[in-house]
Amino acid sequence: DLTELISAQRAAAWSEVARRMAHEIKNPLTPIQLSAERMARKFETLVAEENDEKLTSLKKVITDGTDIILSEVKSLKSMVDEFSKFARLPNAKLEIGNLNDVVRRTLLLYEDRSAEISIKVELLDHLPDCMLDVEQMKQVLVNLIDNAIEAFEPDQKNKEIRIRTNFDQKEAKIVLEVSDNAVGINPEHFPKLFQPYFSTKNGGTGLGLAIVQRIITEHSGKISVVKNYPRGTRFRIELAPA
């Protein structure tokens, strides 16, 4: 399949870009952080020793400035971690397993989450087994569920996420769907949604769904996105049975 080959080549190229970006950005962050912390400590000591009104008036400016620097360094480090995660994603260790079990294990992480959001599950009885990496598939589910949670407007009522497994007899594929009734994604963005560094979220790195697609590709599967009805977004994953 030429499309899958192009997708794999593109993922490899982006992986190299992510590795280089992580390296180039990470190098100066530690000295910037240490310098800002040192400036804050030294100025604090100077103000305490000199008891000078001018120094005292400057204290807020210096403190606010160093706090902003440290906050931005923290944000950049988080971004670098995402770059590194994408660049160093290990190859999937495929073993025979059941997608229903992965869903159940993943949902344990959300037992004590916000009561405002209802997570409804429909798991097909006797779902066929498939070859999968349990931890990586959990990562896929966590990413899709977290994206759905973040998509809800704060004042929205009846927030609902649905997770469903099925078997497509016609295509002979195991199907996993994660849908929500949030505000939804503009269909114009669908073709770009799995591209690295494309994000519809403010402050997003655009790597979450790229990692998801890469994992599904490692499983020789397919992931797609469509509008959910009456509102929201639905992600569909297809895997071959073992």
Describe what you observe in this structure.
The structure is a single chain. The protein is an alpha+beta fold and 242 residues long. It folds into two domains: 87 residues, Orthogonal Bundle (Helix Hairpins), CATH 1.10.287; 145 residues, Heat Shock Protein 90. The protein has five helices and seven strands, in the order H-H-E-H-E-E-H-E-E-H-E-E. Strands 2-4-5-7-6 form a five-stranded mixed sheet, with helices on one face. The longest helix has 49 residues. The protein starts with a helix and ends with a strand.
The main sheet orders its strands as 2-4-5-7-6
Q: What's the order of the H and E elements?
A: HHEHEEHEEHEE
Return the CATH topology of the largest domain.
Heat Shock Protein 90
Spatial gap, N to C terminus: 20 Å
How would you characterize the largest beta sheet?
5 strands, mixed
The CATH class of the largest domain turns out to be Alpha Beta
CATH architecture descriptor text of the largest domain: 2-Layer Sandwich
Q: Compute the average pLDDT.
A: 85
Q: Could you state the oligomeric state of the chains shown? A: single chain
3D shape? elongated
Low-pLDDT stretches: none
Helix proportion of residues, in percent?
40-55%
CATH superfamily of the largest domain: Histidine kinase-like ATPase, C-terminal domain
Instruction: Classify the secondary structure makeup into a structural class.
Output: alpha+beta
Q: Find the count of extended strands (DSSP E, 2+ residues).
A: 7
Radius of gyration: 23 Å
